[in-house]
Amino acid sequence: MTARTVPRRRRLAAAAAFLAVLAAATACTGSDPGSRSAEPAAPTATATGGAVLTIATGSDLSSTGIRQQLIRDWAKGHHVEVRIVRLSDDADRQRSQLVAALQSRTGGYDVVNLDVTWTAEFADGGLIQPLRGSRFTDALDQDVWPAAADTVRRRGKVWAMPWNTDVGLLYYRKDLLPAAQYGTPRSWDDLAAATARFADSPARALPANRNVKAGLLTQLKEYEGLTVNTLEAVWRGGGDVVDGHGTVVVDSAPAQAGLDTLLYARRGGSSLPLLGADSLRSDEMSSLRHFIAGESLYLRNWPFAYGRLKDAQSKSADQPAGQRPEYGVDPLPWSSALGGQNLAVAAGSPHRALAEDLIAHLTGQDAERRLFEGGFAPARRSALTGRSPGAAAADPEYLAALRSSLDRARARPATPYYAAFTRDVQDSVTTMLHGSGPAGPAASALAERLRGSLAGH
């Protein structure tokens, strides 16, 4: 999106956001060693005439700090200083900061770490420059998960490289849902059937299980998680929100059928609803907390939850038999909306070739294996093969669930107007979920809004 296509109020907001970024960056380049905003990833090389690269990114949320270590390794090997500028952990603020800095061309960034949904906007807006060379196209064609590769290609060019990815998984209470009785759910209807079966079982009446309020916990709070769950519901029904040609089709019969699954799961069914009220107020962390508290049989969440659940299971090892939760993980029974982050070269960077080398290193096969070992879902298939030490040591159940879900994952709509798209989805679906009518009228109203938003109005 170029400055000419941005309404005046957006330009003013972007300028204000840029001033905030500039102030933070200026403060962090001083002598305060405790600043978290920017830090060198290797000893300075400027005394010998070496270049200095700046990478803008959100925090490394892994417990291992593996992303920063990968940057340091490259910097040391190339005798280049890489300064890491940490942006806000709030996704909307982070995007605004990056847009403002890159539009002004005075942010000094060489590499930017983008959410997968921002790449089209930044490419169309001239904020990033295409990556050159077969090392990138070959990796995308031969090793990167297809849905992740789709997020970086636009108008016949490669604009970024997937760094890490994210995909929905289905966690479940293995102690309450023995495989011999419940099996592995293959569909939304299977989840509903398992919930109804548990509601009528003797296990439901046990004191240890009285906290169970719903079959499934997911993220239906008004934020990006709601957009993800909306897309997955529509895909479950065989429909789409926006088709491959960019046409809004959320008002089609299959799309409405998918949205109806969310409504009926909330409003009806057995004495134990498939979706409880807590999902309407939940994001990733709060839904995980409710699940650990024993309030549902299943949880739709991202790979980060796997380690948290294993920790929770270990901490309960001393509890009496019959009161110790045991957690399992399966592939999501439907296509997951892909998450993750892409690395791109900032427009105007004076170090384009070096920035491309850094990106090639951070997204290479060895780096992706190390990312997986450090707790991230990798963007490359090869990181999950038996040849990878991390894959060989991983829990087979988790590895199989991750592979299967990534194989079937789908990218969210690639549009320079994604911010408007997700706002409209969240507004409309929140109203629908708190209402009493069918999905049809809400889908029609959403379609009308999206046709305007995706045209830039």
UniProtKB/TrEMBL annotation:
<keyword id="KW-0813">Transport</keyword>
<comment type="similarity">
    <text>Belongs to the bacterial solute-binding protein 1 family.</text>
</comment>
<dbReference type="InterPro" id="IPR006311">
    <property type="entry name" value="TAT_signal"/>
</dbReference>
<feature type="region of interest" description="Disordered">
    <location>
        <begin position="313"/>
        <end position="332"/>
    </location>
</feature>
<dbReference type="Pfam" id="PF01547">
    <property type="entry name" value="SBP_bac_1"/>
</dbReference>
<dbReference type="InterPro" id="IPR006059">
    <property type="entry name" value="SBP"/>
</dbReference>
<feature type="signal peptide">
    <location>
        <begin position="1"/>
        <end position="27"/>
    </location>
</feature>
<protein>
    <submittedName>
        <fullName>Extracellular solute-binding protein</fullName>
    </submittedName>
</protein>
<keyword id="KW-0732">Signal</keyword>
<dbReference type="InterPro" id="IPR050490">
    <property type="entry name" value="Bact_solute-bd_prot1"/>
</dbReference>
